[in-house]
Amino acid sequence: MYKNKLSAFIFILIIVFLISIATGGCSIFEKLKEIVPSETEENIEELEDKIDEVIGLSEDQARVTSIFGNPDEFVIVFSQNGEYSRAETWLFEEMEVSFTFLDGEYDTSDKVITAKLENDNFDIKPEDFAITMSPDEINNLIGEIGIEEMDPETNLKVLTFGEGVITCTFDPDDSLMIVFRMRRVLPDEG
């Protein structure tokens, strides 16, 4: 089930990235005006004060977290050779929206409808992760020892927590490449 959800999330991330390149994207502020209730727009100065309090995020990311809080799910892809060194997609279940950032700058957003997600005890945020992090540093961040395996297709080290709720992939030098933060889907009540 998690592999299908993970594959779907990666697919969405790739599609969002390609569409944003094709369309040239638009400002995060324009997208937020479409999503944010009008009473929030009236209090924009208050929101800007909250943005100044957020540490470790770009201005665009801080603006999103000041309005929506921390993302329910996220994917971070680090690249040393690509055009971007850090690509992120954040999903907000309740608002039914995802945001993509390239090196911290807003790139695009999409409407996303998910099943209800279950809460868990993992208290992590996208800004907790850096490309220089080793498996030991990730274990310290999470507060437990993850299950370490080698991916048979890529021969890369994978560290998993909570039966796939958090998955980190490392390059051959043990530097962080990919972080997936997923949540379990709540069972149907029907």
Concise account of the structure shown:
This protein is an alpha+beta fold.
What can you see in these coordinates?
The chain is globular, with a radius of gyration of 17 Å. It has one domain (2-181). The longest helix has 22 residues, at 2-23. It is an alpha+beta fold. Strands 4-3-2-1-8-7-6-5 form an 8-stranded antiparallel sheet, sandwiched between helices. 24% of the residues are buried. It is 33% helix and 24% strand.
List its traits.
single chain; 190 residues; alpha+beta; 8-stranded antiparallel sheet; 6 helices; 24% strand
**Total count of helical runs of at least 4 residues:** 6
Number of strands: 8
What portion of the residues fall into strands of 2 or more residues? 15-25%
Average pLDDT:
80
Helix content: 25-40%
Q: What is the approximate shape? A: globular
Strand order of the largest sheet: 4-3-2-1-8-7-6-5
**Residue windows where pLDDT falls under 50 for at least 5 positions:** 6-24, 49-54
SSE sequence, one letter per element: HHHHHEEEEHEEEE
- Estimate nothing, just give the exact number of structural domains: 1
Distance between the termini: 20 Å
